[in-house]
Specification:
Number of helices: 12
Order of helices and strands: HHEEEEEEEHHEEEHHHHEEHHHEEH
Strand content: 5-15%
Radius of gyration: 32 Å
Number of strands: 14
Length: 449
């Protein structure tokens, strides 16, 4: 992904260049504790999404000037439960990582500076986290350190992604991995390279579904009213919940937080920070690719261009738009192909094979297959699940013989679908499965699946 493979070397180069210029800034006297350029490392780690500001840092209301960062959480891919691990770089710099292990002092895993002055005695001191105290020094030198911290805090606030932060990223991860029973991820669009996704921003897309567990009416926001009679109802509308991309007109970076709020165009650092946060989220989710759609390959979908007998308007959707039309048309023969309508309209006529797609995973999660759907039937209201992927798990009507169907053929009565394979042709040379009613009731025995 070109836009999301932004060179870390280039990002660091820009930061270091600005850092070297800052050292030549003649506005301040020397800071007794550190150089102004020393603080750039914390902005670098934040922009590269390796750390985040500690909550009490950069607070102008506090008497002490503080710039401390906390290593961000990562998820161990070898652990099925994605336990959080702490990674630290040599030299004490944050390099990813997570919250401190249980029983340890959280402050031991922070990095940064805190500066305090004591005007009554005209002295001041510095503390570098973790565990280094410097001073006392003359107050003028320590006040310079305060100014350096305030300046860097302002630079960090302007450089971070304005649309979302690490807390929102964590909340989104929890929603996708099962924390929100009403969140249905659009796996086909989420975390996908814009070049392979129609130019859509890189991010998290929700199949905007509202699952009403106690039943209800389903109303589409972009289409006429549509009711699916099941245990739940849904509102259908693909929606970007969190993402980042380039405006196709201005070529400038933009970010999105799932609301109607419009953010200003992003500068280099903001764009880099947004991209790195989204990439970290997508990498941690370990989304399995969309289903190979095995059922579609075996004929579970409607033929897109099919119209009955070549008549315009008689599409699969129209012929099955009401229960009456479905009963009327699905078992009829199409004159041009000499096939039944349900053989062209598998999905609309509920004539898909009674087989679950073994590759399907809800929200892309490896432990949420069709067996999981069978115990969470409220999601079967989604017709993509119930009619395409988890047909058997959802108990959807599908391509199988009617065990209760009996018929008469060539004087023989009470025949069942089990007899179809052994029956001869009639006097007109027709196979028994050429009789529409028998073909519909004995789909499997007639090899119409």
């Amino acid at each position: 992904m070109k836009i999301y493979q932004r060179s870390l070397t280039w990002t660091i180069f820009v930061l270091k260049t600005l850092s070297s210029r800052a050292n030549d800034d003649g506005r301040y006297s020397d800071c007794a504790c550190f150089k102004k350029s020393d603080l750039f490392q914390y902005r670098e780690d934040i922009i590269l999404n390796k750390a985040t500001l500690y909550p009490t840092s950069c607070d102008p209301e506090k008497k002490t000037a503080s710039l401390r960062v906390q290593p961000l959480e990562t998820w161990d891919r070898d652990d099925r439960h994605r336990s959080r691990v702490l990674q630290r770089r040599p030299g004490g710099r944050p390099g990813g990582g997570g919250p401190p292990p249980p029983g340890t002092d959280p402050k031991e895993f922070l990095h940064g500076w805190t500066v305090e002055t004591f005007p009554s005695v005209e002295l001041g001191s510095c503390a570098k986290t973790p565990g280094l105290k410097l001073g006392p020094y003359p107050i003028q030198q320590v006040q310079t350190c305060e100014l350096f911290i305030h300046d860097e805090c302002e630079m960090i606030k302007r450089a971070v992604c304005p649309c979302f932060d690490s807390d929102k990223i964590t909340s989104m991860k929890e929603k996708i991995e099962g924390g929100d029973p009403k969140f249905v991820l659009d796996v086909e669009k989420s975390c996908k390279d814009p070049e392979l996704n129609g130019g859509l921003p890189f991010g998290i897309y929700q199949r905007d579904v509202e699952i009403v567990l106690n039943g209800g009416r389903a109303r589409s926001l972009s289409e006429p009213k549509k009711l699916y009679s099941g245990r739940a109802s849904m509102l259908f509308n693909d929606e970007l919940k969190m993402g980042v991309g380039n405006n196709p007109r201005s070529k400038k970076g933009e970010c999105f937080d799932g609301s109607d709020k419009v953010y200003p165009q992003l500068d280099f650092f903001q764009l880099t920070h947004c991209e790195n946060m989204m990439k970290s989220l997508c990498d941690s989710l370990e989304l399995l690719p969309p289903s190979s759609d095995a059922n579609a390959d075996s004929g579970a979908r409607d033929e897109v261009d099919f119209v009955k007998d070549g008549k315009s308007g008689m599409t699969c959707e129209w012929m099955t738009s009401t229960p009456k039309r479905k009963r009327k048309f699905c078992q009829r023969m199409n004159k041009q192909t000499r096939k039944h309508v349900f053989e062209h309209c598998r999905e609309s006529c509920f004539a898909a094979p009674c087989v679950d797609d073994s590759d399907y995973r809800f929200n892309g999660q490896k432990d949420q297959d069709c067996d999981w759907i069978a115990s969470h039937q409220e999601y079967c209201v989604d017709e993509r699940i119930s009619k395409r992927y988890c047909i058997e798990a959802c108990g959807t009507e599908c391509c199988k013989d009617n065990d209760e169907f009996k018929f008469e053929y060539q004087g023989k009565k009470n025949l069942t679908c089990n007899n179809v394979a052994n029956l001869p042709k009639d006097s007109k040379g027709r196979e028994v499965c050429d009789i529409p009613n028998i073909a519909v009731q004995c789909k499997m025995s007639c090899l119409k699946c």
